[in-house]
């Protein structure tokens, strides 16, 4: 079982998320808040595995809250669940440390899948968000260091949303080796995390 914390200024949204996610036996709702200032001390105290955060919050924005979470050293994975998909907000949220970004028109089962993926450290992006992020990638970046054949295979599996364990099993290598390849891929692609690696791989047509 893993814990989920919900931050949204609309009580109806919070109640709906709690009711739906609580139907899954793997999920425990750790708590909820309607604004960032209330949420931050509770997040530090409860240290949930996953936090679902709206971007437009009173007192402290979603991006500010994500930054504060990262600065506090929490390992909580953040899923943005928003009605908005402005380019600047998307980039700011990802740069701040959000793992996934979904829109509120996403199907409930998609959100549930994203929550479970976040527990494993795997990003999920709404198709419209992915498209916008790809458009944001600069085409004038310096050339990247070529990937090895095995790194390309691992990258292809990352694009498919595979976990480290699944990649290891599919490529007949250890999870430690997978982690090493991913570390090399991030360095060569000049990105900070798996989400950005997937975006750049699609943008540069590496897979």
How is this structure best described in words?
The protein is of the alpha/beta class. The chain folds into 2 domains: 135 residues, Response regulator (Rossmann fold, 3-Layer(aba) Sandwich); 55 residues, Winged helix-like DNA-binding domain superfamily/Winged helix DNA-binding domain (Arc Repressor Mutant, subunit A). A 5-stranded parallel β-sheet has the order 2-1-3-4-5, with helices on both faces. The longest helix has 15 residues. The protein is globular and about 50 Å long. The mean pLDDT is 89.
List the topology elements.
Layout: E1 2-7, H1 11-21, E2 27-33, H2 36-46, E3 50-53, H3 62-71, E4 77-82, H4 87-96, E5 100-103, H5 108-119, H6 127-136, H7 149-159, H8 164-171, H9 175-189, H10 194-203
Parallel strand pairs: 1-2, 1-3, 3-4, 4-5
Helix pairs in contact: 2-3, 3-4, 6-10, 7-9, 7-10, 8-9, 9-10
In what range is the share of β-strand residues?
A: 5-15%
- Give me the strand/helix succession: EHEHEHEHEHHHHHH
Q: Give the proportion of residues in helices.
A: 40-55%
CATH fold category name of the largest domain: Rossmann fold
Low-confidence stretches: none
Structural Rg: 17 Å
CATH class term of the largest domain: Alpha Beta
Secondary-structure arrangement, i.e. CATH architecture of the largest domain: 3-Layer(aba) Sandwich
Nutshell version of this structure?
The protein contains 10 helices and 5 strands; from the N terminus they run E-H-E-H-E-H-E-H-E-H-H-H-H-H-H.
């Amino acid at each position: 079982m893993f814990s989920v914390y919900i931050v949204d200024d609309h009580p109806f949204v919070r109640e709906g998320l709690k009711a739906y996610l609580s139907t899954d036996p793997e999920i425990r709702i750790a708590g909820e808040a309607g604004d960032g200032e209330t949420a931050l001390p509770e997040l530090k105290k409860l240290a949930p595995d996953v936090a679902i955060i709206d971007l437009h919050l009173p007192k402290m924005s979603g991006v500010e809250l994500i930054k504060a979470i990262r600065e506090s050293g929490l390992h909580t994975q953040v899923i943005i669940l928003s009605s908005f998909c402005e380019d600047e907000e998307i980039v700011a949220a990802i740069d701040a440390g959000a793992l996934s970004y979904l829109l509120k028109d996403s199907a409930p089962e998609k959100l549930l899948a994203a929550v479970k993926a976040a527990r494993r450290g795997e990003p999920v992006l709404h198709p419209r968000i992915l498209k916008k992020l790809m458009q944001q990638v600069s085409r004038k970046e310096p050339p990247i260091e070529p990937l090895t054949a095995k790194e390309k295979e691992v990258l292809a599996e990352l694009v498919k949303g595979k976990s480290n364990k699944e990649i290891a099993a599919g490529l007949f290598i250890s999870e430690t080796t997978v982690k090493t390849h991913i570390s090399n891929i991030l360095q060569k692609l000049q990105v900070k995390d798996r989400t950005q690696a997937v975006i750049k791989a699609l943008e540069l047509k590496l897979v």
